[in-house]
Amino acid sequence: MVRINENYLKLKAGYLFPEIARRVNGFLAENPNAPIIKLGIGDVTEPLPAACREAMAKAIDDMGDRANFKGYGPEQGYAWLREKIAVHDFQARGCDIDASEIFVSDGAKCDTGNILDIFGKDNTIAVTDPVYPVYVDTNVMAGHTGEADESGKYGGLTYIPITADNDFVAQIPTEKVDLIYLCFPNNPTGATATKEQLQAWVDYAKANGSIIFFDAAYEAFITDESLPHSIYELEGAKDCAIEFRSFSKNAGFTGTRCAFTVVPKNLTVTASNGQAVQLWSLWNRRQSTKFNGVSYIVQRGAEAVYSEAGQAQIKTLIDFYLENAAIIRRELQAVGFDVYGGVNAPYVWVKTPAGLSSWDFFDKLLINCNVVGTPGSGFGAAGEGYFRISAFNSRENVLEAMKRITTTFQ
Ligand code: MLT
Fold first, then answer.
1. Where are the alpha helices (DSSP H) in 148-295?
2. What are the pLDDT digits (tens) for 54-79?
3. What domains are there in the chain, each with its CATH number?
């Protein structure tokens, strides 16, 4: 008899964003002319930077020329891209990360899920609440959790609330956990972590032999110069942290697909036979078995992010989305909403008005304003009563969406 992975049956509803799309499509089926504005999934809207497009066009020409044609590339990514990442994203910030410790991939979402392949089944796991749902759902799929309770919390996971009540600071657990997921600037709340706060996590991880999965997909949106962009800016992080990065949000690669994961070579875990095992070797083995690398054309596009023109163009993009976030904050605050985030992050986290549940507010916005956002409860039980508004859209759409919301809720 064929058996399925029954862990999938434990998953609550569909994955958040397809579930939202399903509800929006249902509404559109009944209201085909509704002028919907989507500020839900954090998907970029502005065109790819010219430097990236030019580099990709040149790479296409290379592929049409026998002398420069590329077949399979290195599974870890081309050295010319990894070297630029190491220098610009890490060494320039004083982080001792070498190009050989960088693994280029097709997405931070895939990597944060796939990384579980190299870890055992019996680890204790901590996530923040609310949280990017991929961290939780991939652990459910891998059989690392029990069933979900009514609020959607899975047995076996340690949930660390980050809410307005604790100023969105992730408190270090009193018990020992093996694997810890942290995302700063945070998706969904837009909150940030200071050097002192992250240092405390690194110290905890080192003291307890834990590994931190640090998702820094939104680091480019940091405007406060005192905040760390990488966990490796903290003393000792190379001994206890894996970092995930992406070109999706800084350079508009959500449809182009390119990201990378940093696994320091000195990061080891003791196997049950007492042997110290290098995580880098396991991840390298995993990637070279299950992954054939990102296309040459896309990697050339990502490389162009680090050119002088590319750096200027991505700054323009990031500033544009941050200005959208500032508009969303300002407009919603003006009619009395409590808003958080959106200063060092492209997400604005809003307290729902009049005690509305997250999904009730979602419905109200959809029906009365034809605006789509993301219900906070979709990110975890502690997200109930909140709502996420993404700053990724055109200026025109952001202004129009704010006009509709502020008129309805004034
Ligand atoms: C989000 O909206 O949370 C993100 O776009 C999801 C992602 O990056 O996969």
1. 195-208, 248-251, 279-290
2. 999 999 999 999 999 999 999 999 99
3. 7-47+309-409 (3.90.1150.10), 52-306 (3.40.640.10)
Q: What is the pLDDT of residue 38?
A: 96
CA angle 201, 94, 298 (to 5 degrees): 95
CA distances to 88, 91, 328 from 308, in Å: 12, 17, 31
Residue nearest (by alpha carbon) to ligand 1 atom 1: 42
pLDDT at 15 over 80: no
Question: Is residue 14 scored above 80 in pLDDT?
Answer: no
Q: Which residue owns the Cα nearest ligand 1 atom 9?
A: 109
Q: What is the pLDDT of residues 17-33, one digit of tens each?
A: 888 999 999 999 999 99
| pTM score above 0.85 | yes
Q: What is the pLDDT of residues 314-338, one digit of tens each?
A: 999 999 999 999 999 999 999 999 9
Beta-carbon contacts of 238 under 8 Å, excluding residues fewer than 6 positions away, are: 96, 97, 232, 264, 266, 267
CA 129 to ligand 1 center in whole angstroms: 16
Atom of ligand 1 nearest to the CA of 246: 8
Strands 157-161, 125-129: parallel, antiparallel or unpaired by DSSP? Answer: parallel
CA–CA distance, 16 with 232 (Å, rounded to integer): 31
Task: State both tokens at 254.
Answer: 């959500």
Q: Which atom of ligand 1 is nearest to the CA of 390?
A: 2
Smallest CA-to-CA distance from 112 within 212, 229, 227, 3 is with 212
Taking the C-alpha atoms of residue 178 and residue 72, their distance in angstroms, rounded to an integer, is 36
> 3-class DSSP state for residue 85?
helix
